[in-house]
Amino acid sequence: MASGVTLLVLGPLLGYRELALLGALALVAVAVAMGLVGRPARLQVRRRIPVNRVATGNKIVVTLEVEAETDGRSSRHGLMAAEWISGPDGRVRWSLRAMRAMPARMTYELVARRRGVLDIGPLEAGRVDPLGLAATIRRHGGTDRVWVHPPVHRLRGVPGGMIADPEGDRDAAQAGGLTFHGLREHVLGDDLRQIHWRSSARHGRLMVREYVDTSRPKAVVLVDQRATGRDQLDEVASAAASVLALAIRAGLGCELQLSGGRRSDGRGGPSTMFDLLAEMTHTAPGPAAGAATPAGAAADPDLVRSCRLLRLRPAGDVVVLLSAVAGSADLIVFGELRDCYAGLVTGLIGGTAGIAVPGLLVLNAATAEELAARWDEVTKWR
Length: 382
Prior knowledge:
single chain; 6-stranded mixed sheet
């Protein structure tokens, strides 16, 4: 339109009627294009995703049900449509087929190619004239989140230090034992007899006593978030998921601790730990990462803090550290937990071989799949 106005003004000034004619034609073309696309359509969008947690490599089926808010032009003319999808590889625009009539129903499939979180939506719909001179595009509806869990490699051996439960099968719950663990906020379904009224009055909300079964074996998976890139961290996440899956399958209590500070003990179900692995992002390693740390070099402060927390709050019989860049100084700090836990295991994914710390079992592997193979091959499990 700006070009048409410019030609229409400059034509008479410069004495060229042809320029003025071209400007007028351009304005007419734009006016016609705007008449064709009309006003932006107002749509109601319902997005249905049967499963919002999938493993890497699986398909995600998305169904869209779209209705026009009014019986206007949107119900008589086709609308171009696309979905915005944000994921580990960035934000992309996923083109869909045109909606020829309302109401419309569309189904499309996505492949969960890598670990991460996918935010699907909003829907973008509108019209564009044949010459691309005018468009009426509007975004409709909200977003839906899908967690893509890392791949799991089957491990067979259970770490030494785990004591068999004489009662047989165990579930994943960690509450209900005889040892007082602490106080937490009341949630729907808690036994009202466990309310601690004095603490509830002090905090201004209901607080309940929480108990744990200290005779129940537990495993802690500590994940070092340092990595040289997302691909490397994906391998570490896959190794962590494999260890957690083993603990869950064996009926053991388990906890996931990230070096960045986030943690999950699976109280909301095992999927909460795998969700945390899906959301995990990498931090840049220090200058000595990926190689044996020189004598006197300091360990990673995040890893040191995580180990201190585990020392102050012993939560398991075995701790498994998984890292891509841990050096000897990091492993020395981790090895100091041996007086609190029955077993310490370190898995170095793609790390430098040859790092040894007394009393600490170190497994070196290029990938999570290779670590799974070495898990039963090298480690002496009970």
